[in-house]
Each structure stands twice: as structure tokens, then as C-alpha cells.
Specification:
With 274 residues, this protein is α/β, with parallel strands linked by helices. It is built from twelve helices and eleven strands. A seven-stranded parallel sheet has the order 3-2-1-4-5-6-9, with helices on both faces. It has a two-stranded parallel sheet with strand order 7-11.
Length: 274
């Protein structure tokens, strides 16, 4: 039995779908077990009362409460943990206190102390971050956000999930922390242009101040703390004028290239339509 936290989230959904399609037993943790819908055969479980009965592996993927869940898993004798961490851990040698790199590295270290079998997934910016533009794109053709020229290499959540499935079901990724990125470096302005070309609309990105952007992002992700947004905004600011980090880890592990940003937009086109 595999226990998946963050089961209704960006990575949780495709990861559970892939495990269920392979016939693997899955228990999905969510704060709303009565209403969250999962594929047939998947057990929904209240994340406030995680059930570790028969659980051999845990996917640690929530924006809050990860340490308590890890401690409970260790006490229950769970052997394997796959952590959803972040690329910034690999990028920042000397992470700032309270920032994303420090938060994720602390969780990685706790996992390494708790279980012998671990894999940390270190994805860069999710393509799914573009979903924060949905309300603006339903209302008009302009996206207002910070740092139009910030460049990321957006990764499709299904690629992160597919690597997670490998880490859960095989042994080849044990003790590894693969840095996972999409295949192309794209500025925010270019990402909005690609959304426009997939949707057949003429869209543009208009830069606003970092302060205004922080307020909007906090409203979109209530589970995260202010310092994490500050560190994310600094990350965007630092990325302006630089090539985005691109690794070949998705291809090494899955034997195929990562999906492009345009493929991600195509897969989520309905979300951007009225
Ligand atoms: N976004 C990026 O670009 C990026 C890049 C690298 C790493 N990461 C990391 O990836 C992880 C997942 O991020 P995400 O934005 O994709 O999250 P997400 O999948 O949207 O959220 C995961 C799930 O966690 C549950 N959850 C949220 N807040 C919670 C809380 N306070 N207590 C308990 N459960 C809670 C929610 O499920 P229920 O409502 O069903 O309970 C949610 O569906 C995070 O650790 C993030 O730092 C993100």
C-alpha cells in the first residue's frame, strides 16, 4: 500500500492515476476525503487521521504538516519515502533561513534521518504555476505579474509524477535527488504568448511590482508563508537575463524527453477557457 499526501494537488492527481492504472494499492490523504474524487480502487483517507495500516511507502507532498506526517510514518515502520522537494535545494549552496531552499532541505534531511529508502524529487518551476493566470485570462487578454523577463524551465506535473512512480516501484532511484526540469527556458512573457497560440488568442504579459505580485500570489496559495513568496520573487528577479536551468534527468529516468510547455497548455486548455 502506498500512502500519498497532497493527493488532490498538482503532482498527487497524476501520480495516483498512474499508480492506480498499474493496479498498485493507493491510500490518498486529503483534508476532504468525503468530496475529493479519486480513481476507482483508491482509498480516500482524512489527512488529519492518516491510516498507516499496511503502508510500505509514503509520498511526502504537502505544503504544510510534512514533518508530523513523516514522524508518524517512521513510528509506523514505513520503509520508503519519496519527497516532493525543489530544485532550489540543488541551486543554493548557502540557503537563506526560512526560504524555499532551507525549508525543503530541512525536510529532505528529516526524511534521510527517518528512513533508509528515500528519493527526493527536486523539480524546478511547475508549468502548473501558470494556472494562477486563469482568472485574469478568463477576464481579458492581459496577464499582470512580476518580472516579465524572468525565465524558468516549466515542468509538466505528470513528468514529476512519473518519476515519482519510478522511485516508488523500483530501486534504481534510492538515495538520489534528481533535479527535474522542463525542456525549454521560457520567460513569463513567452509563456503567456504560448498560451495565446494554443488558445488562438492574442495575449500579452504586463509587468507589475513585486509587492503587488506577492499579495496576489499569497491569495492563490494560502498554505505558504510570506518568506517563501519573498524567496520565490527573489528567485524570479535573479533569473532575469540568465538561461533557465535545464537538466536531462527526466529523460534519463523515463527514457523519453520531458513534455513541452505547449503540451502542458494543450492538456489544460479548458482551464483557461470561460
Ligand atoms: N510550484 C512550483 O513551482 C514548485 C516548484 C518546486 C517545488 N514545489 C513544491 O511542490 C510541493 C507541492 O506544491 P504544489 O503547489 O503543487 O501543491 P499542491 O499540489 O497544490 O498542494 C498539495 C496538496 O496539499 C494539501 N494541502 C495544502 N495545504 C495543506 C496544509 N496546510 N495541510 C495539509 N494539507 C495541505 C492540499 O490537499 P487537500 O486540500 O486535498 O488536503 C493540496 O492539494 C510543495 O512542497 C512545493 O514547495 C513547487
Amino acid at each position: 500500500m502506498i500512502l500519498v499526501s497532497g493527493a488532490t494537488g498538482n503532482i498527487g492527481r497524476p501520480l495516483i492515476a498512474e499508480l492506480a492504472a498499474k493496479g498498485v494499492k493507493v491510500r490518498a490523504l486529503t483534508r476532504t476525503p468525503d468530496t475529493a474524487r479519486f480513481p476507482e480502487g483508491v482509498e480516500a483517507c482524512d489527512s488529519g487521521r492518516p491510516d498507516f495500516d499496511g503502508v510500505s511507502a509514503l509520498v511526502l507532498n504537502i505544503t504544510g504538516g510534512s514533518v508530523a506526517l513523516l514522524e508518524a510514518a517512521r513510528a509506523a515502520g514505513v520503509r520508503r519515502v519519496v519527497t516532493v522537494s525543489a530544485l532550489v535545494v540543488a541551486e543554493e549552496a548557502d540557503p537563506e533561513e526560512g526560504g524555499n531552499a532551507a525549508v525543503h532541505r530541512a525536510l529532505e534531511e528529516a526524511v534521510e534521518a527517518a528512513v533508509q529508502e528515500w528519493t527526493h524529487l527536486r523539480p524546478g518551476a511547475f508549468a502548473a504555476n501558470s494556472l494562477r493566470w486563469v482568472p485574469q485570462l478568463r477576464a481579458g487578454d492581459v496577464v499582470r505579474g512580476p518580472y516579465a523577463e524572468a525565465r524558468t524551465s516549466p515542468i509538466h506535473e505528470a513528468d514529476i509524477a512519473a518519476v515519482g512512480v519510478r522511485a516508488l516501484l523500483g530501486d534504481e532511484l534510492l538515495g538520489q535527488a534528481p533535479a527535474l526540469t522542463g525542456p525549454q527556458g521560457l520567460t513569463f512573457a513567452e509563456q503567456v504568448e504560448i498560451i495565446g497560440s494554443v488558445l488562438g488568442r492574442s495575449l500579452r504579459y504586463e509587468e507589475i511590482s513585486a509587492d503587488l505580485a506577492k499579495q496576489a500570489m499569497m491569495a492563490h496559495s494560502p498554505g505558504m508563508r510570506g518568506e517563501q513568496f519573498d524567496s520565490m520573487l527573489r528567485y524570479f528577479a535573479d533569473s532575469v537575463g540568465k538561461p533557465a536551468p535545464i537538466t536531462d534527468e527526466v529523460e534519463r529516468i523515463l527514457g523519453r524527453p520531458p513534455r513541452t510547455y505547449a503540451e502542458w497548455v494543450t492538456d489544460h486548455a479548458d482551464a483557461f477557457r470561460n
